[in-house]
Write a structure and sequence with these properties.
The chain is an alpha+beta fold and 403 residues long. The protein contains 16 helices and 14 strands. The structure holds 2-oxoglutaric acid (AKG) and fe (ii) ion (FE2). The site of fe (ii) ion (FE2) has 3 residues, from loops.
């Protein structure tokens, strides 16, 4: 349902701390986005990994995957053309515009800025056809039994009073019911409302750096505390094409498919496509009241610089960390570093659509980017990257995604 949330979804986002908006993408556009992501991943991994071919999934874990849950934050994942197509798509922008308009009591919240977030890939090796009696490849086991890393993405010093909503665009479904428990987002329902009490109870003894980090992973004792407060754990069920939205101070993490579900895939009772996870993250926010114009401009420049060199950022568009543009994978040397589009300058890209320009740095973004590009024309780019990037990023591809 492009255009925004229903009242019920808005209430859920406030009450439970998260909601699922189905149908942000559907039909041909959804198919095209998944196909486009398949092309990106294939090129990015030097034709090693095809998200449509389970026999290649092992290579993802062998060579590339090394991270926080299923997140892929380095190696320019946030700079892949498909990720840009998604975050710049009007259907996605409209969801965030609606969220922040509702938050502002119906008033125009002002222009939004966007994160250059990462993506999540879960490519179950259980789907790989095996001879009878053959053992599952080890990476599956390593993934399936990972401990949840329940956390909040908002620290006590500046996150509490601010309403930051993160989003996840699901190119594949994340079914979670009695039959299938696919890889998905896990949440502690309503935990965002308990965060002031949580920081009161546990925050006092934290070192200042940890308080300022905007990321806190819960200890076993802290999780017990949430349980005692009556918080229920939920594996979120979200169909392909939906957006999951949640508040940054909701306790959450990504979880892999359950061992039972992986077994069901292995035994042919569940199709592997039900378990594969391809999602991208996006977070948009109007300029917070306490951010001055000078600070906002400084951050705009930093965001544009991140765009220029191919960094992926953390979620909060006004308090972001940068993840390296170099791949941080299993010592892999083959991965092509995705940097920036060679055929199209970013200044041209930004100037092409005023709404997109604003997402990354306000009305002066194209001019600022032109300045950055003039100062650092080659931005750590190699000729090999160029051929890779020109396949990944063409301005005309984006025409399809304008409305
Ligand atoms: O969807 C997931 O895997 C969790 C990612 C996460 O923690 C986040 O995007 O903040
Ligand atoms: Fe998170």
């Amino acid at each position: 349902m492009p255009g925004g949330l229903t009242d019920a979804q808005w209430e859920e986002l406030n009450g439970d701390g998260f909601t699922v908006v189905p149908g942000v993408f559907s039909g041909e556009v959804l198919g095209e986005l998944l196909a486009s992501m398949a092309r990106d991943v294939e090129t990015w991994t030097n034709n090693d990994v095809d998200i449509e071919d389970p026999t290649t999934f092992g290579k993802w874990y062998e060579h590339y995957w090394k991270s926080h849950g299923m997140l892929v934050q380095s190696g320019g994942s946030g700079a892949l053309a498909t990720v840009d197509k998604i975050r710049c798509h009007s259907n996605v922008i409209e969801v965030f515009e609606d969220v922040h308009t509702r938050r502002a009591g119906g008033k125009n919240p002002g222009p939004l800025r966007c994160s250059r977030d990462a993506m999540s890939l879960y490519l179950p090796q259980s789907a790989v056809p095996r001879a009878p009696g053959e053992k599952a490849a080890p990476a599956v086991e390593r993934l399936a039994f990972r401990k949840p890393w329940l956390h909040v993405d908002a620290g006590p010093d500046h996150g509490l009073e601010e309403f930051c909503v993160q989003g996840q665009v699901c190119l594949t479904g994340q079914r979670n019911d009695d039959v299938v428990q696919a890889a998905t987002l896990m949440v502690l329902m309503g935990s965002h409302k308990l965060m002031p009490a949580f920081w009161d109870r546990f925050g006092k003894t934290m070192p200042p750096a940890a308080r300022a980090a905007d990321y806190h992973q819960m200890s076993a004792e802290q999780l017990e505390w949430f349980k005692d407060q009556g918080c229920a754990v939920r594996r979120v069920s979200a169909p392909a094409g939906s957006m999951v939205l949640w508040q940054s101070n909701l306790v959450h993490c990504g979880v892999e498919a359950t061992a039972d579900t992986l077994r069901a895939v292995r035994e042919g009772r569940v199709d592997w496509r039900e378990v594969r996870r391809v999602t991208t993250y996006v977070c948009m926010l109007p300029v917070p009241a306490k951010v001055t114009e000078a600070e906002a401009t400084k951050l705009d420049k930093r965001r544009l610089h991140a765009l220029h060199v191919g960094n992926t950022t953390s979620h909060h568009p006004f308090r972001f960390r940068l993840f390296p543009s170099k791949p941080l994978f299993h010592g892999n040397t083959k991965m092509k570093m995705y940097n920036r589009p060679p055929g199209v300058s970013l200044a041209q890209f930004l100037a092409w659509d005023p709404r997109v320009q604003c997402l990354f740095g306000g009305p002066r973004a194209a001019a600022l980017m032109a300045e950055v590009e003039r100062r650092r024309p080659s931005a750590r780019r190699t000729r090999r990257d160029e051929s890779c990037c020109s396949r990944l990023f063409r301005l005309e591809d984006f025409a399809l995604f304008r409305s």
